[in-house]
Amino acid sequence: MRLKVEFTTEPFDLDEAPAHALVAREVIEAAALDAVDVGPFGNTAEGAADAVLGAVDALLRRSLEAGATRISLQVNVVGAGENEK
Length: 85
Prior knowledge:
The protein has 2 helices and 4 strands.
């Protein structure tokens, strides 16, 4: 099964990316995911279910530790293949 995660971290700072946003970006870019799109107002990534769920766990933990006061996320099933786990 493939999953797509969309997320934002808050509080926002339009002048400079806050530490929690940089940590979130680092977690997602380091994970074994494909189709990663990091932007100023939202971020998305896709990958195998285990990789996405592991990245979401790390994203939540590390972003909160780095000062995020709110993390909004959505996870969707985007497809399932017999050989994907």
